[in-house]
Design brief:
The structure is a homodimer of 165-residue chains.
Chain A (H helix, E strand, L loop, with lengths): L17 H18 L5 H12 L6 H10 L6 H13 L3 E4 L4 E4 L9 E6 L5 E5 L1 H13 L3 E12 L1 H7 L1
Parallel strand pairs in A: 3-5
Antiparallel strand pairs in A: 1-2, 3-4
Helix pairs in contact in A: 1-2, 2-4, 3-4
Bound molecules: zinc ion (4 copies).
The structure holds a DNA duplex (30 and 30 nucleotides).
Chain lengths: 165, 165
DNA sequence: TATCTAATGTTATATCATAACAGTCAAGAG
DNA sequence: CTCTTGACTGTTATGATATAACATTAGATA
């Protein structure tokens, strides 16, 4: 799906590299342990698959890999694992892409935003506490009680912006 | 789909009421005229359908209505009209709902945000110039050139928040 | 062990969206 | 005026995303 001719470490700075992926997986496991979550084999493997990927993966892309490794081969297998990860903050859903991506700091309670490159489809998770605060306030001003939000930006990542110039 | 037991004017303050809808439609027509856009019968009717609706409508809901009125009965008919409206700023796509909603101020160039009620599914368009600016800056700080963004909040609208209490 | 619950797996189907191509129509060129 | 052209509308067919419903299995509990 994605091409990834980018120098490693640029297009998705936060979770590129096997070492980073391992570190994040370890964090996620600790987090699950602490919270009494059951990070079963499919779920754990699904998280690994997301971590191994650059950019975000569609549910069916995850499913392909799971099926190839002997897990169930039907959509609910992937959707259930992905939804579990999202519900417990170990992954995020990227609505614009109908795709999922591993959270880069699963232990912190946070609201995430994403920067999606139009050209290379890289997805970068950004922290947006201030944006979320502003949004909560603005919503509150019209009587709306904000609970969750989707904040996704589309444009050119630094690498692609450079190439385009 | 939506229930709408809300007092008119509350759940979707900006385009509720036939008078409001007519006013917005007139604006949209003027805007199209000025920009040399062809607001053909299907497109115009599609916009009306969105304006008549409370909340956002899925493409197939729009299609049903169009088909019932003698327009084409196949998905591309609805998607083409909807995409036209979105491209020209007369409507917006609400990603979280896989749905579309008429723009409440089609003549102004703007970035929109939406507040979506979890309970009654009302959708309120909000202006977010300051949020967008903040986001563009934050993105720029990591070298990302932001072009478009999706900002959608989910929670309880003022009416539903009141009822829940 | 017997029982209960959460998790996994399956089949089937719902929902959302687009590709590809044929017919229509109005504006501009000759 | 007629021909060409390009935008628009329509169709069939298919692709892509997501969930409902139910059978089976594996862990925890009593
Ligand atoms: Zn995260
Ligand atoms: Zn890029
Ligand atoms: Zn708008
Ligand atoms: Zn509501």
């Amino acid at each position: 799906m994605t091409d990834h001719s980018h120098p490693a470490g640029f297009c998705c700075p936060d979770h590129s590299g096997a070492a980073q992926a391992r570190a994040i997986l370890a964090q996620a496991e600790a987090h699950a342990q602490a919270g009494g979550l059951r990070l079963t084999p499919v779920r754990r493997r699904t998280l690994e698959i997301l971590l191994e990927a650059h950019g975000a993966l569609g549910a069916y892309e995850v499913l392909e890999r799971l099926a190839a490794e002997g897990y169930g081969a039907q959509p609910p297998v992937a959707y259930r694992a992905l939804n579990f990860l999202v519900e417990h903050g170990l992954a995020h859903r990227v609505r614009r892409l109908n795709a999922f991506t591993a959270c880069v700091h699963p232990t912190q309670e946070h609201r995430a935003a994403f920067l999606i490159c139009d050209r290379c489809e890289s997805v970068t998770e950004a922290s947006v506490e201030s944006l979320t605060r502003a949004m909560t306030e603005a919503a509150g001003a019209v009587g709306f009680k904000l609970e969750r939000s989707t904040i996704e930006g589309v444009g050119l990542c630094s690498v692609c912006a450079g190439e385009a110039a």
